[in-house]
Structures are given as C-alpha cells and as structure tokens.
Amino acid sequence: MPDAITIDEYRYEEIYPSFKAQTDEKQLTAALNAALLRGFIARGLLGGSGQPLMVADLGCGPCDTILMYLSAIGYGPGFRIRATDFNEEYAGAAGGKAVATLAAAQREGTIPIVDFAVAPGDSFGGNLLRLVSLPGEERRRGFDLVFASHMLYHCASEAALRMMIADVVDNLLRDDGIFILYHAAAVPGTFTYLRAKYGRHGAQLERSDTPAPNVADPPASVAAYCAERGWPCLELNFVAMMHMPGLREEHWQSFRRPAVYGELAQQDPGALDNLKRLMFVTQRAPLEFAADSSPLGLDGYLSEARAIIETHGGELPLAERLQVVCRPGSRRELIDGLRAALDEAGRGH
C-alpha cells in the first residue's frame, strides 16, 4: 500500500513528503535566500570574479531546494554544484533523485548549471571535501557558497554538529566564502520545541533509516560553537507554518492507536497525511511511541501538539532562523556587507 505508514519503524522518505506538501517553509526560505544572495552580489560580496560560483549543498535531498535557492538571483556565469546526502534514495549514483533533478535543470536551462556532482555520505563524518568533489578535483577552501538547509536535525550529537561546522569552515569555504544555514529553533510552542521534547534518542534507533534528533536546538548550537571559536555568525529570525487541514476529534483519537493506521490509509488519506506530519516532528516509530507510557510518549505528545495547533487555527508554527557563517579573520567589509544584505532581506520578508 504506497500511502500507508510503517508502524514498527520510522522511515524518513515515507513521512517527509507529507510535511513538505503542507508547509510554506521552502517557499519562505527560497524567497529570503534569493533576496539575500542578490544583496550579496549587488554589494560585490559574491561573484565579483565573473566566474561560475562553486556551491556545495549538504543534506541536499532531491536537490529541488538548492534550485529554488539559486534560480532567482540572476547570476549569468552560472553554478558548479556539488551535493551530498545521507539517503541513497536521494544521492545514490544510480537512480538517485538529486542527479535526476540537477540533470533536468541543466538540460532545460532552468538555471545556468555549468556542471554538477552528487555523492552519498555522512556530512557529519569529517569528510566533506571528498563528498563534494569530483575524483581528482579536491580543492581545499574552494567554495563560494555552502548550504545546510534543515539538515542539522539529523545530527547524532553536539560533537558531530561541531565537527561538520568546523569541516565547512576549515576545508570548504574560500577566504570570502559564505556558509548559509536554515533551521527551526526550539522556541516554546513550536515545531522544534516539540521535537526536542518528544523526539527519540540514539538508543532507540533500531530499524530506523534516520539518525535521531539528538541536538535540541540546532541554531543555538551553531551560534554557541561559532562564538566559542570566534567565527562570525549573523542571524535572522522568521516564522513558517506547517498546515494541518481538516483535523477532527475522531482523527486525534485514531492517531493514538497505531493499529488503525492502515484503515486511515484506505478510508481517510487526508487524515493519514496529517498523521505523517505529526510523526515527522518527533521521528519515532509509532509502535514504540505508543508503548511509551511516560509523559513523553505518544499520548502526551498528541495532547500538547493538538493544543498548539488549535491555538494557531490548524497550523503548527516553525520558529525559523537563517544563519550566515564566515571564516575567522574575514575582512570587515565582508562582515559589514553581509549584515547590511541580511537586514535588507529581512525587511522585505
């Protein structure tokens, strides 16, 4: 049954599309990112050489997001895109969705892609330069732009998060390179707050294809690490929404019983999609979640999530944060220009 939900494990690729279909997160970040990069270019902070920009996309998924981020900035010389993702379905060399997406965009001229490469691998493992390089191409500190968009949730620990940030800054960014991160913060009553409170931990990862959400507040962790290292880290806050249409009392009751999820798939696909969105927040297998009789089990989660969603008229807020990180010792003109472009983009959105 293609639209069913697996109950004895959490499967990211089965759950994520339902979330993506009912959130304005990507549209907001794409518009904000386009404004931000146009500001960088207008101030001479990016693309001053007139050469194609080297772009790395970490946790790339099917690469539709990076195309959204780059398509509206109007940079004629184009892009050399290097992408990587942990999930083979996205980044696998044979039949991976990322390759198909980038190939189609290059063929159709959606954006000027000079060349691209995609590789599967662990962005938190300390080998980013290898993952985002063609064979024989490895050029340390050769990237103009590096993106990590809504992927730090899949980091298994604070230590692994710090390793990835250091890997980008030390090995990928050129002297005036720019590292752009988008993530939701753990503000009370929002998406990441619920994930941090109810999301499962490493010891419970059996049979899951997704690393646990063990970092409670990714933007706070990035900011703290950059402050500790003395690295520039600029920020902008904004709010996205996860839409939960058509929820009724009987839906909330059925969500508490994994045994009836199969019936939902057959009888009420809309309710099943809402359930998947709720499960995307916590990334716990339904059977394990329901068996947890503690305040952090499925019952407790659904009660708190319902109160938040109903307070916001059928939507769950995402307290989003854009962060821009640069290499240590970056010239003052770069930092001042980035801050001005960030402020300008924020006023427009």
Summarize the structure in words.
The radius of gyration is 20 Å and the shape is globular. The chain has a domain at 23-187 and 213-241 and 319-347: Vaccinia Virus protein VP39 (Rossmann fold). It contains 15 helices and 7 strands. The protein has 349 residues and is of the alpha/beta class. Strands 3-2-1-4-5-7-6 form a 7-stranded mixed sheet. 44% of the residues lie in helices and 18% in strands. Helix 7 (158-172) packs across helix 9. 45% of the residues are buried.
**For the residues shown, what is the average pLDDT?**
91
* Second rung of CATH, namely the architecture of the domain at 23-187 and 213-241 and 319-347: 3-Layer(aba) Sandwich
Which spans have pLDDT < 50 for at least 5 consecutive residues?
A: 202-206
Rg (CA only): 20 Å
Helicity level, as a percent range?
Answer: 40-55%
Q: How many H/I helices?
A: 15
Give the spatial strand order of the biggest sheet: 3-2-1-4-5-7-6
Order of helices and strands: HHEHEHHEHEHEHHEHHHHHEH
CATH fold topology of the domain at 23-187 and 213-241 and 319-347? Rossmann fold
- Count all strands and give the number: 7
CATH homologous superfamily (4th level) name of the domain at 23-187 and 213-241 and 319-347: Vaccinia Virus protein VP39
Global geometry:
globular
Cα distance spanning the termini: 41 Å
Largest sheet: 7 strands, mixed
Q: Which strand-content bin applies to the residues?
A: 15-25%
The CATH class of the domain at 23-187 and 213-241 and 319-347 turns out to be Alpha Beta
Structural class determined from secondary elements: alpha/beta
